[in-house]
Amino acid sequence: MYALVVATMLSVSTEPALPVMVSSYSTLKRCRVELLIVAKELEYKLVTSPLLGYAAQKETEEKTTIAFCVRNIESI
Fold this sequence. Notes:
about 80 residues, alpha+beta, five-stranded antiparallel beta sheet
């Protein structure tokens, strides 16, 4: 199982917020398709991160929000 995760980093906070799992998918391909849909509908920029792989990112002055797919190890 794969999960679509959203993480927010605030520029004024000293502690990072925990990432939130939005939904889960049976394959990585389905998760990435949903990531593309989210990016298009919410006007996120598609990026490739060396740490996260394919991701959708939106930056403002106060925060950076990033969505990405991860493998859900609880289902194994």
